[in-house]
Write a structure and sequence with these properties.
TetR; HTH-type_Tx_Regulator; mainly alpha; 11 helices; Tetracycline Repressor, domain 2; TetR family transcriptional regulator; HTH_TetR
Length: 213
C-alpha cells in the first residue's frame, strides 16, 4: 500500500490537475484549497502563493526532461532509443501540458521562473544536439554538424509549441494524448530526409503507427 501523500504533495498534485484541466490563469489558490477541502491558510502555510506552486511543478518537469534527454554511456544509440525518447517526451508534454500551453504568460508573470526557463531551454537544446549527433554516430541519421544544430533547434521549437498550436485549432479542454502523439510524428518528419537507407523503412513504419494510434 502506498503511503498517504503529505498536504504539500497533495497541493502540488491538485494544482497540476487543475492547471491542466482549466488553465493556470483560471485557477487561484482559493480554488486549489477548495478542491482539496482545506483552508486557504493551510495552503499558504506550505506555499506562499501560486507562483511558488508553479515553480515546484516546473522543477519537477525540468527534472523529468533531464532524466531522459541524454545520450547513454558505454553504448551507441539504437532505434529503440528513438522510440524511448519520443515516449518520454510525450509523457512529459502530457503530464505538464499547462506549462506548454501557458508558457508565455507564466514567464511574463515571474522573472525568476523566466530566468530558470532560459537556462533550462539552453541546456535542453545542447542535450538534444548530443542526442541527434548520437544518432548520426550510430549511422541512423546522415547529417552534417550544421544540420544537427538546425534539427535540434527546430525539434525544440516544435515540441515546446505543439500544445499551444493545438489550442489554436481546438478547445484546450479537449486536448488528448492522441493529439500530442501527432506532434511526435511531426518531429520524426523533420528528420525523415536524413535517415540512412538501412533504417528508413523501420522509422517510416513507426511514423505510420503514430498516425494510426
Amino acid at each position: 500500500m502506498s503511503p498517504a501523500l503529505s498536504t504539500r504533495e497533495r497541493i502540488v498534485q491538485a494544482s497540476l490537475e487543475l492547471f491542466n484541466s482549466q488553465g493556470e490563469r483560471s485557477v487561484t489558490t482559493n480554488h486549489i484549497a477548495a478542491h482539496l477541502g482545506i483552508s486557504p491558510g493551510n495552503l499558504y502555510y506550505h506555499y506562499r502563493n501560486k507562483q511558488a506552486i508553479i515553480a515546484e511543478l516546473f522543477a519537477a518537469y525540468e527534472q523529468e526532461v533531464r532524466t531522459f534527454l541524454h545520450v547513454p554511456t558505454g553504448r551507441g544509440l539504437t532505434l529503440d532509443d528513438k522510440a524511448g525518447y519520443l515516449q518520454a517526451l510525450l509523457d512529459a508534454m502530457w503530464r505538464y501540458r499547462f506549462l506548454h500551453r501557458d508558457l508565455e504568460h507564466l514567464l511574463d508573470s515571474d522573472a525568476q521562473l523566466a530566468e530558470r526557463y532560459r537556462t533550462f531551454a539552453a541546456q535542453s537544446l545542447e542535450h538534444a544536439r548530443h542526442v541527434y549527433q548520437g544518432f548520426v554516430d550510430a549511422g541512423i541519421l546522415c547529417m552534417t554538424a550544421r544540420q544537427v544544430d538546425a534539427l535540434a533547434l527546430n525539434a525544440w521549437i516544435l515540441s515546446t509549441s505543439w500544445v499551444r498550436y493545438l489550442c489554436t485549432t481546438a478547445s484546450a479542454a479537449s486536448l488528448d494524448e492522441a493529439e500530442l502523439r501527432r506532434g511526435l510524428y511531426q518531429l520524426l518528419a523533420l528528420e525523415e530526409g536524413y535517415l540512412s537507407d538501412g533504417f528508413r523503412e523501420a522509422v517510416q513504419a513507426y511514423m505510420e503507427r503514430l498516425l494510426a494510434a
